[in-house]
Amino acid sequence: MPERYFITAIHTDSGKTLVSTIFAQALHADYWKPIQAGYPRDTDTVMPFLQNKKSRTHKEAYLLQAPMSPHAAARLEHVEIHPATILMPETDNTLIVEGAGGILAPISDEYFVIDIAKKFDLEVILVCNIYLGSINHSMLTINELKRRKLKVKGIVFNGPENLETEQFILKHSGYPCLLRIKPEKKITQEIINRYAIELLANLNLPSEKQG
């Protein structure tokens, strides 16, 4: 079975779409955002940067209009989101699945975004931003992932480098660091490719997979 990863984060606007793009380009993987709330669609942001012959994107299970929490956006449209109605796209390729918001962003009155990862037994990649208070937010998220007994591939740090913060999170989580993304003025294909090559090296995969 191909590898399937779930990109989530310690809060919203964390860089999940950027990280998803880097992983998809590095692994020549497919990309899928099961629940999209608001425009522009993250799929439309990712698609132009997948410059290889294998990657393709898949249609959202729920495409909502309002840029807010999925459960609130769904309520405005009189839609009820339920994990049982979300079906995995048909693909033989590696799949990158991007969540919405943080792991406990609600998709309904009963379910959270992280329930999608649980349903499909996806291996989690956690994006941790670097800012004042991020240790607390990171550890709360990590503890919840462990409580739910989810598989975690590792952590991607996004933001200004802070080795003390990063080392604390890595030590207490027990997860490896997969990538460090520095602040970038503009995201270009060159930047995506550079991080993709770095990611492959960290995963001990051959760089020629990047194309």
UniProtKB/TrEMBL annotation:
Report the EC code(s) recorded for this entry.
6.3.3.3
Query: For binding Mg(2+), which residues are annotated in this chain's numbering?
Result: T17, K54, E98
Q: Does the keyword ATP-binding apply?
A: yes
Q: Which residues form the active site?
A: K33
Pathways involved: Cofactor biosynthesis; biotin biosynthesis; biotin from 7,8-diaminononanoate: step 1/2
Q: Which SUPFAM superfamilies match?
A: P-loop containing nucleoside triphosphate hydrolases (SSF52540)
Alphabetical UniProt keywords: ATP-binding, Biotin biosynthesis, Cytoplasm, Ligase, Magnesium, Metal-binding, Nucleotide-binding
Whether Ligase counts among this entry's keywords is yes
Task: Report residues binding ATP.
Answer: D13, S14, G15, K16, T17, L18, E98, G99, A100, G101, E184
Swiss-Prot/TrEMBL catalytic activity: (7R,8S)-7,8-diammoniononanoate + CO2 + ATP = (4R,5S)-dethiobiotin + ADP + phosphate + 3 H(+)
Identify the InterPro entries for this entry.
Answer: DTB_synth_BioD, P-loop_NTPase
Query: What main location does UniProt list?
Result: cytoplasm
Subcellular localization: Cytoplasm
The source's superkingdom equals: Bacteria
Q: Which Gene Ontology terms cover its molecular function?
A: dethiobiotin synthase activity
Q: Which residues form the signal peptide?
A: none
List the PANTHER family. Answer: DETHIOBIOTIN SYNTHETASE
Q: What does this protein do?
A: Catalyzes a mechanistically unusual reaction, the ATP-dependent insertion of CO2 between the N7 and N8 nitrogen atoms of 7,8-diaminopelargonic acid (DAPA, also called 7,8-diammoniononanoate) to form a ureido ring.
Subunit annotation: Homodimer.
Q: Which family does it belong to?
A: Belongs to the dethiobiotin synthetase family.
Q: What is this protein called?
A: ATP-dependent dethiobiotin synthetase BioD
